[in-house]
Each structure stands twice: as C-alpha cells, then as structure tokens.
User: What shape does this take?
Amino acid sequence: MTLKVTGLVRQYPGALEATLKGLSFELNKGLLTAVLGKSGAGKSTLLRCVVGLEPFEEGEVEIDGVVVTGTKASSPAERRKKVQAAHEKLGLVMQSFELFPHLSVLENCVLAPMKVKGLSREAAEARAAGHLKQLGLEAKLKVFPDQLSGGQKQRVAIARALSMEPSVLLYDEPTSALDPTMKQEVLQTLHRVDAGQVTQVVVTHDLQLARGMEHVCVLDHGVVIESGPPAKVLNAPEHESTRMLLASWS
Ligand code: ADP
Assistant: This one.
C-alpha cells in the first residue's frame, strides 16, 4: 500500500460539523486514481490534509510507510517530524504549476534535487533530463516557462515533481487551467508518468479525465461513498449520490 487514509476527521475551527467525517481509502503502488465529488464534498480539504498543509484531528495518513496521526493522538513536535518525513515521499502539482519564471526548464527541475537532496549537478541533470524526455520535453530543456504552452508548463511541473522521486504524486484539478481541448493530452501525460512506481492521485471534477484513470474514489459529505475501476463506478454506480453527481455532469 502506498497511500492509506484511515478514519480522517477534519473540522474547521468554528464549523458546526466536520468537513471530513472519518474518510478512508487505500491505494496500491502505481495506481492512477481520480478523486471525484461535487463542490464542497471535501476534495481540497483531503488534499491539504494528505500533503500536510493543514492539520486533521483524528485518523491517520500513511504514505509509503510513514504514518501521520491526527492532532488528538500526537504532539505538535511528533506531527512536525512525521509530516516532514511524509513530505519527502510526496509531490504536488498545483493548478497554476508554480514554475520559477527566471529559470530554464532544466534548472526548474534540478534546483530541489540539488538543494534538498544534495544531488550533484550532473546527477540532478541526468535525472531531470530523463523525466523531461519521458514527458516529451527533450527539446525544451533550455527554454524558459513563458515560452511554453499551458500543457507543456504542466508537464515541466510534473517532471519537476518527479525529479524528487516521490512515492505519491498529487494533482489539484489538472485540467482546470488548460483549454478543454487539452484533456486528452493531460490524460496521456498521466499515463506516461504511470510506470508502476508512482502512485498518482488526481483531484478533479472532470468526468472525462476520470474515465481514463485506473481507479476512482467518489467523495460525498466528507466520506468515500464508493470506489473501484471507472468502468464500474462511473457506468454502474451503486450509490444514489454518485448517480446524481454523474447526472449533474452529463
Ligand atoms: P471541494 O474541494 O470538494 O469543493 P472543500 O474541501 O473545498 O470541498 O470544502 C468542503 C467544505 O469545507 C465546504 O463546506 C467548505 O466551506 C469547508 N471549508 C473548506 N475550507 C475551509 C476553511 N479554510 N475554513 C472553513 N471551512 C472550510
């Protein structure tokens, strides 16, 4: 299991009820998964809790063997240590890509491996060039982000995340900042990454994108109401809320 979330509870200060209400799911290594749900279901909150941007009160997040527990079960110092250890196994691709505009594509990808992981320039460049080639960007190593299309910028952001060799790579709405005609390209990119080593979790409200994944988890009111292969969950949903969600998108 690369990512296992167990009984996650997140209640915002002052809120009358919890946003995440004992949410659980587990994903095997290498699985390409969409997390779906209507607006307000708790997708972004889940993402922020998994990446450690936000605390949760109860439950556990286990990332490639590192277990982060809720604030009720661990001291702030313990949590900080675990969140840091979990960080080393996680990558996040933001909607806005967050590339460094003053650095070339290659420099964007070598900076963190050199500064954070202590790789030599030679090793970092070799690793980055491999990921950039895997994503079809071998001709763009020396160009700057503003010379790239949206889809290319996204692929650089993915290559940059991969250059830190994460076990789990999370994407926040990867089609939202791109032209709708790019959906197929995004899907192809996700499959190009998927070499069985990286577990990819894609938070999306894009049904077309979800159909092209290997697994989907449907969130509703802060819990996972169903999960499985898209052919099953999206074509023959068991839960009424999933049927309503699909109807609202079609
Ligand atoms: P989704 O990403 O599925 O649209 P969110 O996780 O953004 O859902 O939000 C789920 C619920 O949590 C919403 O009711 C929202 O109002 C609440 N919420 C999200 N972020 C905050 C916050 N920072 N403070 C208080 N409530 C929040």
In short: Residues 70 and 133 are 40 Å apart (CA to CA). The chain has nine helices and ten strands.
